[in-house]
Write a structure and sequence with these properties.
Blueprint lengths: L1 H31 L6 H27 L12 H23 L1 H8 L11 H17 L2 H7 L2 H6 L1 H17 L2 H28 L3
């Protein structure tokens, strides 16, 4: 178990390091060396981002449901690294737009077409903003400054996950995202019911 925990912590460090590298390198590659990132390459990056946020959404409720399984609970530690890496990939695409035309991009955010329901654009932008907020607040300083509000802010992970998954499913018909949403919803509800039952059992008769 000690070796397992060490492996998890090192994986966490690797994910955090890769997140920083992605935010430093990926926007520049997208802007100035687009040939290195083909359409398929962009799709792969988004797929990695979706897999990571799916892990984040699944691991905690699974750990609650399978509390007797020792190897699952430590995986909760990786929620931070996986979530930051997922958000870093999504936010890197925003940074790429800001590098090329910061004024134009900021102005576009305040326009109605940016938030249009046409093409499900509003879902994509909701996911982007949620990813940005999650990325900025995923540190100990934000946790201290926000206090009790920190956990509320982190619930934006639901907005990030569902908005991005819905966007990809509705726009491209990727049924994998539909399955992911169904799994997360089912497992989360089961964990909620399980935890509520445990709390009620502890209440005095």
């Amino acid at each position: 178990m000690k070796l397992y925990l060490t492996l998890i912590r090192r994986t966490q460090q690797i994910l955090m390091t890769l997140s920083v590298i992605a935010m430093m390198v990926l926007p520049l590659v997208l802007d100035f060396y687009p040939d290195f990132v083909s359409g398929a390459g962009v799709q792969h990056l988004y797929s990695v981002s979706h897999v990571l946020i799916f892990f984040v959404m699944m691991v905690r409720p699974l750990a609650d449901l399978l509390a007797s399984t020792q190897w699952i609970r430590p995986l909760v530690i990786l929620r931070k690294g996986a979530g930051v890496m997922s958000a870093a990939i999504a936010v890197s695409f925003l940074f790429a737009k800001l590098v090329v035309d910061p004024q134009g991009y900021v102005a576009s955010i305040t326009s109605l077409p940016y938030w249009s329901l046409w093409g499900y654009a509003v879902l994509a932008h909701m996911a982007d903003i949620a990813a940005m907020v999650l990325l900025v607040t995923s540190n100990n300083l934000s946790k201290k400054l926000l206090g009790g509000w920190w956990k509320r802010v982190q619930k934006l992970s639901y907005v990030y996950f569902y908005a991005s998954a819905l966007y990809v499913y509705l726009s491209y018909g990727d049924t994998n995202l539909l399955i992911a949403m169904a799994l997360v919803t089912t497992v989360t509800l089961m964990a909620f019911i399980e935890n509520r039952s445990k709390r009620q059992a502890l209440l005095p008769a």
